[in-house]
Amino acid sequence: KAGVTQTPRYLIKTRGQQVTLSCSPISGHRSVSWYQQTPGQGLQFLFEYFSETQRNKGNFPGRFSGRQFSNSRSEMNVSTLELGDSALYLCASSLWTANTGELFFGEGSRLTVL
Amino acid sequence: SQQGEEDPQALSIQEGENATMNCSYKTSINNLQWYRQNSGRGLVHLILIRSNEREKHSGRLRVTLDTSKKSSSLLITASRAADTASYFCATDLQGAQKLVFGQGTRLTINP
Question: Least buried of A16, A29, A87, B11, by fewest C-beta within 10 Å?
Fold first, then answer.
């Protein structure tokens, strides 16, 4: 069974631009969660999508948004990029809701904002 | 602030020794999980322990949970160089419907 796939793996953007990250969950998994990881703040929860609906949202500004498609694939978008958005963005899928069982993580998308 | 706080932040031991990491949290939980992350990679699930369980084993891993002290520990026995990684606890807070990760413990196993 294929694991969680995140694309792109690495990207460089400049301030003010926007970026879209993609996550393909494990087949059959209905939940996709997104996390931002930085050396200073650690792993911060962004949001969770379950069956195309946003189930929960972390404490991030509205510039961070996401969605989930009918095939459970998910995208997250960050608009008007700031230097502080440089981070490793991790996607995780789970069979049921994210907090109730094991999360399967992708390798992450490393975003650098210049 | 992070719900789960790991202690110590960094741990360096010799191969073959046991490694113990601790996690403390502030509010009631439904379950607590431990994950491993190799440098810059995705996280890998290790163990999930529910609030009504006190101890779980998986291979060389042993996890304990003390809900009265709001703490958990992860013990890795007979450590190997491949165990070098960061270890995170993640708590499912009651009512929050999300997993909250701690800052992690960076474990280094010296050959």
Answer: A16
Q: Which residues of A touch B31 (CB under 8 A)?
A: 99-100
Q: How far apart are CA A53 and CA A36, in angstroms?
A: 20
Residues of chain B with C-beta less than 8 angstroms from the C-beta of A97? 97
CA distance A95 to B49: 18
**Tens-digit pLDDT profile for residues B65-107:** 999 999 999 999 999 999 999 999 999 988 888 899 999 999 9
Comparing CA positions, the residue from A94, A43, A88, A44 lying closest to residue A68 is A94
Rounded Cα gap, residues B23 and B33, in angstroms: 10
Nearest to A106 by CA among A2, A8, A3: A3
DSSP letters for B25-61: -SS-EEEEEEEEE-TTS-EEEEEEEETT--EEEETTE
Please indicate whether, in this complex, the C-beta atoms of B102 and A42 are within 8 angstroms of each other. Answer: yes
CA distance B101 to B96: 13
Mode of pairing for the β-strands spanning B43-50 and B10-14: unpaired
CA dist A18 and A14 (Å) reads 9
pLDDT tens sequence across A43-67: 999 999 999 999 999 999 999 999 9
Report the residue from A58, A102, A107 with minimal CB separation from B41: A107
